[in-house]
Design a protein that fits this description.
Bound molecules: CIS-heme D hydroxychlorin gamma-spirolactone, protoporphyrin IX containing FE
Oligomer: heterodimer
Radius of gyration of chain B: 23 Å
Largest sheet of chain B: 2 strands, antiparallel
Structural class of chain A: mainly alpha
Subcellular location (chain A): Cell membrane
Number of helices of chain B: 15
Strand order of the largest sheet of chain B: 1-2
Largest interface: A-B, 65 and 74 residues
Order of helices and strands of chain B: HHHHHEEHHHHEEEEEHEHHEEHHH
Helix content of chain B: over 70%
Distance between the termini of chain A: 47 Å
Shape of chain B: globular
Number of domains of chain B: 1
Organism (chain A): Alkalicoccus halolimnae
Number of helices of chain A: 14
Strand content of chain B: 5-15%
Number of strands of chain B: 10
Keywords (chain A): Cell membrane, Membrane, Oxidoreductase, Transmembrane, Transmembrane helix
EC number (chain A): 1.10.3.-
Distance between the termini of chain B: 59 Å
Structural class of chain B: mainly alpha
InterPro entries (chain A): Cyt-d_oxidase_su2
Helix content of chain A: over 70%
Strand content of chain A: under 5%
Number of strands of chain A: 4
C-alpha cells in the first residue's frame, strides 16, 4: 500500500466509526423526542440516558479526528472543500453546537424541558442530512472551479435527485442503526417495555434503509457513470452487506442474539461504506482532486502514520475500559449502579 | 466600512470564535487540575469538604466543557472554511501537532466520561482519583499541541519553499520552533492561574454575601495558595516571553512598547497615548525596564520601530492589550500572595472585606488578561498569518457569504453564552452546598 492509500484508509475508518456511534446518538435523540410526543417517554428515556451520557463527547471526537486528519494527510482538500463548503459547513457546525451544548444543559443542568428535547431530536436528523452533502459533492458536477475560484452550485445541488436520495438514505440509516443498537441495549437492560418499542422501531426502519440504498445506487449511474462502473467491480462487498442486513433483520424479528444482530448491522454498513469508498478512489473530489495530487509530503505522511499508531496504543485500552464500564457491565446497564 | 470584504470578515469571525472558545478552553485546561488538587486533599486529609468541592466543581465543569467542545469543533472546521489557503500550507507543514491534538482530546474525553459517572462505583477512593490523571494530561497536552501550531505561525520553520512549492519538510522542527518553549509554558500556566482565580471568585463572593460556612473558607484558601504559585510562575514565564520577542519578533515588542528609536537603556512605557507624529503623551515611564525585559541587563539594545518598513508593522494599539495583560498579571500575583501571607501569619484577618473584593474581581480580570494576551500576540503578528511567509489577506477564503455566517455565529455564541450562565446558576441554586452537605452527612460548621 502506498502512503496515500494508508492515509485515506485511516481516515475512512474513523469516518465509519463516526457513522456508527453518531447514528446511535442522532437516532436516539429523535426516538426520545418522538416517544415523548406520544407519551411513551418514560419507557425508553432512561435507556437512552444511561448509554449516551458517558459517551457523547467521544462521539464528537470521531468527527474532529476526520476533518483535522484530512487536512493533515490531504492539505489540498482544505482548499477545495473549504472554499466551497462555507455555508453548508457552517450550518453543520451550528447544528452540532446546538445539539452538543443543549444536550449537556438538559442532562446535567436544568430540569427537563420540551424545547431542549425538541432541539435534540430535530438536530439529530438535520445534522446527518447536512453532513452527507460532502459525500454528494464529491461525486462531481456540483462545484465549479475557474481560475482558482472554487464555488458551490446551489441550484444544481438542490435540484438534483441524487443529492436528495443521499439525504434520505442518511436519515433512514441513522434511524435504523440507532434502533438496532438500542434494541440490543434494552434487551441487556432487561427492560421489556422499552425493548418491544425499540424493536418495533428497528423493524420499521429496516426496509426503508435497504430500499434507499438501492435507489441511491441506481441514481448514481446517471450522476457519475464512471464511479458507478467501478462500484460494480465491488459487487461482492455489496453482496456481503445485503446478507448481513438480512441476518440482522431476521434476528431482530426472531428476538434472538441481538448482540450479533447489531454486529451484522455494523457489517452491513462497513461493507457498503468501504465498497463505496474504494470505488470512489482515486478521486477525493471528482474530477478535480485525487489522493495523489492532493497528498502531503512524505516526511509529514510518515510522521502522521507513526503518530496514529502510537495514538492507537493509547486509545484502544481506554476505549475498552469505557465499554467495559458502561456497555458490558450488566449491573450498570440494568441501572443498578 | 465592511464592504463585504471576505478577508476582513473572516478575520472578525475568527476573532469571535477564538475569543469565545478561548474562555472555555482556558478553564477547560485549568479546572481539571484544580479538581485533582481538591480531590487529593480530600483523600489525604480525610476531609469531606474538599471531596465535595471536587464533586461540585466537576458538575459545573461538564457544562463549560460542553461549550469548549462545540466551539472547538467550530474552530477546527472554520479554519478550513475561512482560511483554506492557510490551512493548505499548514497541512503540509504543521499538520502533525494538529493531528496529535485530536488524540489528546480523545484521551481526555474518554476518561472524563468515566470520571463523571463513577463517583461511588469503585471500592477505593484512589481509583477514582487516578482517573483524573489522564484528564489533566489530556487537557494539558491539547493546549500543548495547539499552542505549538500557534508558535509555528509566529516562527515558521522546518520546511523550504522552492518555486512556490513546500519541500524538505521536517515536522518535528516545525513543531519545536523558537517560539514554542515560552508560548506553551505561558499558555499552560495561565490556564491554571485563570481557573484558580475563577473558582476563588465564586468562594469570595459567597463569603462577601455573608455565608460563614467553613466550606467556602477552605475553597478560598486552597485556590489562593494555588493561584499565588501560578501567578508568580506566570510573571517569570511572561518575562521570558519578552526575551523571546526581543530575539525573534522585535517588531512586535517595539510595537507593544511604542519604541521608535533603537537604543540601549530603553524605558518601559505604561499607558499613555500616541499623537499624530508618534509622540508618547501622559505615559508612565519606567527607566531601563524595557531593556531589562528584553535581555536581563539595562544596556541591552532594543530595536525600534523605525528600522522596519511600514507595511510589515502591526497596529500600534496592541500597546494597550500588552499593558492590560501585564498589569493584571501583577495584580493577581499581589492579591494572591497577600492573602496567603496574611492567612499564614495569623496576626491579621485574611478574610477582610477589601481583600475579598479584590479577590472577587480577580476571576473576571484574569479572563480579561487572557483575552488581552491573545489579542496582543495575534494582532501583533499582523499583517502576517505565517510570519514572513504568507500574508493574512492571502490566506483567506474568497467566498462572498462570510458576512452572513458572521451574523449567524454571533447569534449562536450569544445564545450559548447566555444559556450557559443561566444553567450554571440554576444548577447551583437548586442544589445549595448546605443542603448537599446535609444530605451526604457532612459536618457543616461556621467560622
Ligand atoms: C491554528 C492556530 C491558532 C491558534 C492556536 C490561535 N489562533 Fe489566533 N488566529 C489564527 C490561528 C490561531 C488564524 C486563523 O490563522 C488567524 C486569522 C488571521 C491570522 O493572522 O491568524 C488568527 C487570528 C486571530 C485574531 C485576529 C487578528 C487579526 O486578524 O487582526 C485574534 C484576536 C486571535 N486570532 C485570537 C486568538 C485566540 C483568542 C486564540 C486562543 C484560543 C488564538 N488566537 C489561538
Ligand atoms: C486555532 C486553534 C484551535 C483549534 C483548531 C482548536 C480545536 C479544538 C477542537 C476541534 C475542540 C473540540 C474537541 C472535542 O471534540 O473534544 C477543542 C476543544 C478544546 N480546546 Fe481548542 N482549539 C484551538 C485553540 C485552543 C487553545 C489555544 C487551547 C488552550 C489554551 C485549546 C484548548 C481546548 C480545550 C481545553 C478544549 C475543551 C474540550 C475538551 O475538553 O475536550 N484550544 N478545540
Ligand atoms: C505578569 C506579567 C506578564 C508578562 C510579562 C507577560 C508577557 C507576555 C508576552 C511577552 C507575550 C507575547 C509572547 C509572544 O507573542 O510570543 C504574552 C502572551 C500572552 N499572555 Fe502574557 N504576560 C504576563 C501575564 C499574563 C497573564 C496574567 C495572562 C492571563 C491570565 C497572560 C496571558 C497571555 C496570553 C494568553 C498570551 C498569548 C499566548 C502567548 O503568546 O504566549 N499573560 N505574555
Amino acid at each position: 500500500m502506498t502512503y496515500e492509500v494508508v492515509g485515506i484508509t485511516v481516515l475512512w475508518l474513523f469516518l465509519y466509526g463516526y457513522l456508527i456511534v453518531a447514528s446511535v446518538d442522532f437516532g436516539a435523540g429523535f426516538f426520545s423526542y418522538y416517544s415523548k410526543r406520544k407519551n411513551k417517554e418514560s419507557v425508553i428515556h432512561s435507556i437512552i440516558q444511561r448509554y449516551l451520557s458517558p459517551v457523547w463527547e467521544v462521539t464528537n471526537v470521531f468527527l474532529v479526528f476526520f476533518f483535522i486528519g484530512i487536512v493533515g494527510f490531504f492539505p489540498d482538500t482544505a482548499y477545495y472543500y473549504g472554499t466551497a463548503l462555507l455555508i453548508p459547513g457552517s450550518v453543520a457546525i451550528i447544528l452540532l453546537a446546538i445539539r452538543g451544548s443543549y444536550y449537556a444543559f438538559a442532562t446535567y443542568g436544568a430540569k427537563e424541558s420540551n424545547f431542549y428535547s425538541f432541539l435534540y431530536g430535530a438536530t439529530g436528523l438535520l445534522i446527518p442530512a447536512s453532513l452527507t452533502t460532502v459525500l454528494t459533492i464529491s461525486e462531481g458536477g456540483y462545484i465549479s472551479v475557474d481560475d482558482g475560484n472554487v464555488s458551490l452550485l446551489y441550484g444544481e445541488l438542490f435540484s438534483s435527485l441524487y443529492s436528495w436520495g443521499v439525504v434520505i438514505l442518511a436519515v433512514v440509516s441513522v434511524l435504523f442503526i440507532s434502533a438496532a443498537f438500542l434494541t440490543y441495549y434494552a434487551a441487556r437492560a432487561k427492560d421489556n417495555e422499552a425493548f418491544s418499542l425499540l424493536r418495533k422501531y428497528a423493524l420499521t426502519w429496516a426496509f426503508p434503509s435497504i430500499i434507499m440504498g438501492i435507489i441511491v445506487f441506481a441514481l448514481l449511474e446517471q450522476r457519475n457513470p464512471e464511479h458507478f462502473a467501478s462500484m460494480l467491480e465491488y459487487w461482492w462487498m455489496f453482496g456481503i452487506s445485503f446478507m448481513a442486513f438480512l441476518t440482522a433483520a431476521w434476528l431482530i424479528w426472531k428476538k434472538k442474539n441481538l448482540g450479533i444482530a447489531f454486529i451484522m448491522v455494523m457489517i452491513q454498513y462497513f461493507a457498503a461504506f468501504f465498497a463505496y469508498g474504494a470505488s470512489h478512489l482515486p478521486y477525493l473530489l471528482y474530477p478535480h482532486l485525487t489522493i495523489y495530487d492532493g497528498f502531503t509530503n512524505e516526511a509529514m505522511a510518515a510522521a502522521l502514520i507513526i503518530a496514529f499508531i502510537a495514538g492507537l496504543f493509547l486509545l484502544i485500552p481506554s476505549l475498552y475500559l469505557l465499554m467495559r464500564l458502561f456497555l458490558f457491565d450488566a449491573e450498570y446497564v440494568e441501572g443498578r449502579r | 466600512m465592511f464592504d463585504n470584504d471576505p478577508v476582513l470578515l473572516s478575520r472578525i469571525l475568527t476573532y469571535l470564535t477564538l475569543g469565545f472558545h478561548a474562555i472555555f478552553a482556558t478553564i477547560g485546561v485549568g479546572i481539571p487540575m484544580m479538581i485533582a488538587i481538591a480531590e487529593w486533599m480530600g483523600m489525604k486529609r480525610k476531609d469531606p469538604h474538599y471531596t465535595l468541592l471536587a464533586r461540585r466543581w466537576a458538575r459545573g465543569f461538564v457544562i463549560t466543557v460542553a461549550i469548549g467542545v462545540v466551539t472547538g469543533t467550530a474552530i477546527g472546521l472554520q479554519l478550513s472554511l475561512l482560511w483554506p489557503n492557510f490551512m493548505q500550507a499548514a497541512g503540509h507543514t504543521i499538520g502533525l501537532p494538529m493531528f496529535m491534538e485530536t488524540f489528546a482530546f480523545f484521551f481526555e474525553a474518554i476518561f472524563l466520561g468515566i470520571y463523571l459517572y463513577t463517583w461511588d462505583r469503585f471500592k477505593t477512593k484512589m481509583k477514582h482519583f487516578l482517573l483524573l490523571i489522564p484528564i489533566v494530561i489530556g487537557a494539558t497536552a491539547s493546549a500543548f499541541f495547539i499552542t505549538t501550531v500557534n508558535a509555528f505561525m509566529n516562527v515558521p520553520q522546518g520546511f523550504e519553499i522552492v518555486d512556490g512549492i513546500v519541500t524538505n519538510v521536517n515536522p518535528i522542527e516545525a513543531m519545536f520552533n523558537p517560539a514554542t518553549p515560552t508560548k506553551i509554558s505561558h499558555v499552560i500556566i495561565i490556564c491554571y492561574l485563570t481557573s484558580a482565580f475563577v473558582l476563588a471568585t465564586i468562594a469570595a463572593v459567597k463569603i462577601l454575601k455573608g455565608n460563614k460556612s467553613v466550606y467556602h473558607r477552605k475553597a478560598l484558601h486552597m485556590t489562593m495558595v494555588a493561584a499565588a504559585v501560578f501567578a508568580v510562575g506566570t510573571a517569570v514565564i511572561g518575562d521570558l516571553s519578552g526575551k523571546y520577542l526581543h530575539e525573534y519578533q522585535p517588531e512586535k515588542l517595539a510595537a507593544a512598547e511604542w519604541h521608535f528609536e533603537t537604543e540601549r537603556g530603553a524605558p518601559l512605557i505604561l499607558g499613555g497615548y500616541l499623537t499624530e507624529d508618534n509622540e508618547v503623551k501622559y505615559a508612565l515611564e519606567l527607566p531601563y525596564a524595557l531593556s531589562i525585559l528584553s535581555g536581563f541587563s539595562p544596556d541591552t539594545e532594543v530595536v525600534g520601530l523605525n528600522e522596519f518598513e511600514d507595511d510589515v508593522l502591526p497596529p500600534l494599539f496592541i500597546h494597550y492589550f500588552f499593558d492590560t495583560m501585564v498589569f493584571i498579571g501583577m495584580y493577581l500575583a499581589f492579591v494572591s500572595t497577600l492573602f496567603v501571607f496574611l492567612n499564614w501569619t495569623k496576626k491579621w484577618n485574611a478574610f477582610n472585606k477589601p481583600l475579598l473584593m479584590m479577590i472577587a474581581a480577580g476571576g473576571p480580570l484574569s479572563i480579561l488578561a487572557m483575552e488581552s494576551g491573545w489579542i496582543f500576540t495575534e494582532v501583533g503578528r499582523q499583517p502576517w498569518i505565517l510570519n514572513g511567509i504568507m500574508r493574512t489577506s492571502e490566506g483567506a477564503t474568497s467566498s462572498e457569504h462570510v458576512g452572513l455566517m458572521l451574523i449567524l455565529f454571533a447569534l449562536l455564541y450569544t445564545v450559548l453564552g447566555v444559556t450557559c450562565a443561566g444553567v450554571l446558576r440554576k444548577m447551583f441554586r437548586s442544589n445549595p452546598v448546605e443542603r448537599e452537605m446535609y444530605k451526604r452527612g457532612i459536618n457543616n460548621y461556621e467560622v
